[in-house]
Specification:
The complex is a heterodimer of chains A (228) and B (473).
Chain A (H helix, E strand, L loop, with lengths): L1 E14 L2 E14 L3 E5 L6 H8 L7 E6 L2 E2 L5 H11 E4 L11 H11 L4 H14 L15 H13 L5 E5 L7 H18 L2 E5 L3 H6 L2 E6 L2 E7 L2
Helix pairs in contact in A: 3-4, 3-5, 4-5, 5-6
Chain B lengths: L1 H11 L3 H41 L2 E5 L12 E2 L2 H8 L4 E16 L2 E10 L17 E2 L2 H10 L4 H9 L4 E2 L2 H8 L3 H15 L13 E4 H7 L6 E7 L5 E12 L4 H4 L2 E5 H8 L4 E2 L1 E6 L4 H14 L5 E5 H4 L1 H39 L1 H9 L4 H36 L2 E2 L2 H9 L5 E2 L6 H27 L2 H5 L2
Parallel strand pairs in B: 4-10, 7-9
Antiparallel strand pairs in B: 1-12, 1-13, 2-11, 3-4, 3-8, 3-12, 5-6, 7-10, 8-9, 14-15
Classes of the chains: A alpha/beta (228), B alpha+beta (473).
The complex binds adenosine-5'-diphosphate (ADP).
Amino acid sequence: MKVLELKNVNKIYNSDEVKVHAVNDVTLDFAEAEFAAIVGPSGSGKTTLLNLIGGLDMPTSGEIIITGTNLSKLKSSQLIDFRLNNIGFVFQSYNLIPVLTAKENVEFIMTLQKWPQKERDERTFELLNAVGLGDRIDSRPSKLSGGQQQRVAVARALASRPKFVLADEPTANLDSKAATTLLEIMEKLNHEEKITFIFSTHDPRVVKMAHRVITLEDGKVVSDVKLE
Amino acid sequence: MKEEFKIAWRNLWRNRRRTIITSASVFFAVFFAVIMRSYQLGTYDHMINNLIESFTGYIQVQHVKYQDNPLIDNSFDYNDSLASAISEIDKVVSVTPHLESFTLASSGTQTKGAAVIAIDPVMERNFSDPESKLVKYRITDEAVTRLKHAGAIPDNVLEKVKKNLGRSFSSSARLELELGLADEDNENCMPEILKCTEVSNGFLTANDEGILVSDRLASYLKVAIGDSVILMGQGYHGVSATGIFPVRGIIKIPSPEIDNKLIMMTIPAAQKFYDAEGKITSLVVNLTGKSDRVLKTVKAKINILLPDNNTVAKTWYELNPILYQQIQGDSQSGQAMLGLLYFIIFFGIFGTVLMMVSERKREFGVLVAIGMQKKKLKRIVTIEMIFLGAIGLVCGLLASIPLILYFYFYPIVLKGDLANMMEDWGWDAIMPTAWFGPYFYWQAVIVAFMVVLATLYPLRKIGKMKEIEALKG
Ligand SMILES: Nc1ncnc2c1ncn2[C@@H]1O[C@H](COP(=O)(O)OP(=O)(O)O)[C@@H](O)[C@H]1O
């Protein structure tokens, strides 16, 4: 089953009379439980593509369809709810809510979705244990290392079982050991939870762990390789 | 909502120092504004009570020409049924006839201009109650000597008593207030002080031919009870009025200006003295409420009752334009100062908001990106702002309550130069606070308004925010 389809997606920036074709006629689809890396040199359009997929930005033309819903048909407040219920986000600089503890951060999306407390608790403990932070549930982000914060962010992104998780350079700020740990955890959860992960990176060690590698150049998909 | 309160509350303490500084500035502004306003309004009330509730009343019925030309010629016939009709009006507490005029008062070699207020000793109880103003205690050299011989009075207490040499008091409470002894001394020495300073006094009977003299005037004229004072003035239709009047009692008036010149006698005695049979110069009307609206309504109702165009009702501020202007001017300059203070505080709050928004731009972006509706984010920020204003506001109000209560019951008695200055202005040198009223609640309204104004900025920012822009930080 397809969770995500991109049909002839273009994104053109018109800034200061310079036209930048950041995403150029991209057509892709993603199935359930994929573990896909988007790679390419800096400026190749990875971030722009992920923002489009995540509904944070609108394509200049083309369609993005997530489990049957065309994103461009949604009003902005509907789009926010759609992201809440369907997409998990992991950001390069973690971006946890600084005033909430690890547990509260993971719970946050479920709270917005009004899950009952008991189910929230169960899911939170399950995920924090899975990312190896079962003993840090009451720590605020400032008391955690970068790798630990990013693991909390992964747990947060997965909490409400989204259709897929988007991660823009999730390891960019991590040392190689923490980066490998994070990827191992992501892969394990991808396997256990059957949730698609799409992440951008230019770290070869991270690329090596992906099951599918999509390469962008100047906004165009130049290769799309599935490895098993 | 619980979640939003939790996040807002924690956000508030992210930058502990900034929150404390902002709250503290609101706290001091509110505290200062409440205390200052309370003193101002309390002092005005005190002045109004002294002057208006004891002399002019809130409304007076006068001859139309009397205010510009306060002569016995501009008097009118006392009319019992008019007085009782006025007293039927809603909010009217008492209607009291006065016959007022100026005379020269002399005794021995001393002569001084005096204001004569002729009253009905029985009816006057409902208005200025001069009986309660009779001097009961006086600190004289003899009293101090007596006190010394009584023994058991510590030196520091004696010193304080001596400082008030020459002053007299119409009640033990006022004597206590002005001496301002420490609690313990007060308890131990007060009975003895009261005993040694007590003086006997007398009052007017219904058709008395004697007079009451205000304390400062009496000491100027060097008269005591039983002595006589010669009064010389102009009577009805220009006849000259002269008489000799025995002093029945000495009264202490809180307002120094009036204490310097007041003589009271009965209306029959004054009518005889001025040759003005049946005449009075004013009907003094006292009210329960003192708001502008009450004054205006009652005044209008009285004017309808008046039989002819020779008499007219006037409010206290028409009768005392100078006092009224003084109060207005003082009040306005006080308010302008508070306005400036709040203006500065507003920019403090606004500065905090600006910093908060710029620091948290990315965080706002993340929250909306992962699925928080902007509405909810706005709610969190609004709650935060309300907390920020409310902490200072509530603490400021709470902190001012004990002070207001204390100085309401134990007002500040000014001493020395300040006191002399106040008295030269004709004001009693006592500064009580005003009881809680609109001025108190207004601070909350002002702070709320400032918070709302400052909150508009982040709300607008959030409304216009584009997630990807915000995420870039
Ligand atoms: N808001 C924008 N305005 C104009 N040009 C942009 C904007 N965002 C990205 N670009 C341009 O689009 C291209 C792709 O950028 P990006 O998606 O950030 O690439 P990557 O993530 O692969 O480094 C770059 O040339 C960049 O300069």
